[in-house]
Amino acid sequence: MPQPDRIDLHAIARSAMGQYGFQPFFPKAVIREVEALDEAAVLGNPPDSVADLRGLLWSSIDNADSLDLDQLEFCEPAAGGEIKVKVAIADVDAYVARASRTDEHAAKNGTSVYTGIETFPMLPQRLCTELTSLLAGQARLAVIIEYTVLSDGTCRYGAVYRGLVRNQAKLVYEETGDWLEGSGAIPETVRRTAGLEAQLRLQDQAAQRLRARRLRQGALELEIIEARAVIKDETVQDMIVPKINRARQVIENFMIAANETIVGFLDKADVPMIQRVVRAPRDWQGIVAIAAASGTSLPAEPDPVALSAFLKERKAADPERFPDLSLAVVKLLGPGEYAMLAPGQTSAGHFGLAVLDYTHSTAPNRRYADMIIQRLVKCAIQRNSCPYTEKQLSDLAARCTERDKFAKKVERFMRKAEAAVLLSGRLNETFDAIVTGASAKGYYARIIAPPAEGRIMRGGDGLRVGQKIRIRLVNMDPYKGFIDFERVHS
User: Fold this and answer.
1) Is 196:168 a contact under the CB 8 Å cutoff?
2) Are 349 and 358 contacting, i.e. CB atoms less than 8 angstroms apart?
3) For the chain, how are helix, strand and coil distributed in percent, rounded to 5?
4) pLDDT tens per residue, range 108-118
5) By three-state DSSP, how is residue 160 classified?
6) What is the pTM of this model?
7) Cβ neighbours of residue 411 under 8 Å, at least 6 residues apart?
8) Domain spans of the chain?
9) Which fold has domain 426-488?
10) CA distance linking residue 291 with residue 308, whole number of Å
């Protein structure tokens, strides 16, 4: 669909970054510092304590266009039906010295921001997509996290140490997931890499064990529609919703277990840390009311197992409206946050994941909190003194929480802006839609196709979340990130 040349999505993205306190471009001092890095000096003579694991059949699963690869996975069968898992995390700290110009800039932004039209990486491209990225065929330093998955999904945490790895296969979520689920052909990379098919089947088996146990414990499987713009030649071609599949479940469950392992490792080392927490739901009674409207009675006190069962039942009964139910529940649960945890202190836990001890340690190329955790882990491995005071960790946790919150705001704004661009030229067309929000602030609806959301400016009185309606597009403004509808009565 032709789109007006005047709509500059790059300018909109950069403006949104600035509005929320991000620096969209790297200072020259940071670029000079990164250009001066010597890969041979870092990789050429690793300490004896770095295990050479390049011979293992490591692989990665990520988006097709991702180059900032943070994680590799490898499994092997063990006695009694157990599965031993190794997760390799890119050793970003090996190149980014604490208090360097690059480190200071990363701390200010706190995270990479993905706007569709443009990615604003936390670290310069030479770092995150080259030197530290676990690219296929390249030797890379990594932090290795080991744990064992038992037949009932119980996880026995193992060693954490430094290693040298080589990615043998870069895989993609969609085609790998379709193949694991039996709805697609074996990916070419899997077919031509000896042993990789069996390796991935074992990874899938371990992940499904972990997932089943988490669900029994009350982990919440929510499904929120966060459409991604498909952009070609600077033109928004479509909006798509990434599908949750078995390949994504491998990574999700492996990383949760890896993060729990890291918390246990740091706890034993008596090292203060930053945890990722979701405290008791902000509005449990609101969740109880939503369940009651569907004929389900939830306990008066927060109960993740009961909530998980309710969500599972509603997904089966009404899959089309489940994303909107999920969104309502997420808003009532409240946001996640980073919090400093001193040695011996009790964690607030992560309600949505049904885990007590959790952190973010598996994406140091993309999140500053993960880089901090990596430094804490390496100091514990080497038995050095902690590089941060508790006060510094507390301040950094607050900073990372703020940056994470604002990154999500930028990304949500850009989804609306890109959807508005996609809908340009379709003014006064009518669409099937589902009501996604109803409050004192107004009513909102999402078009079924393309999955674009906007505000109902006229005819919204009396609507309820989940209701199917017809709406007409009456206005849009990509620069302000809004789309306006009016209800059309049959």
Assistant:
1) yes
2) yes
3) 40, 25, 35
4) 999 999 999 99
5) strand
6) 0.93
7) 113, 114, 115
8) 44-269+359-383, 284-334, 426-488
9) OB fold (Dihydrolipoamide Acetyltransferase, E2P) (2.40.50)
10) 11
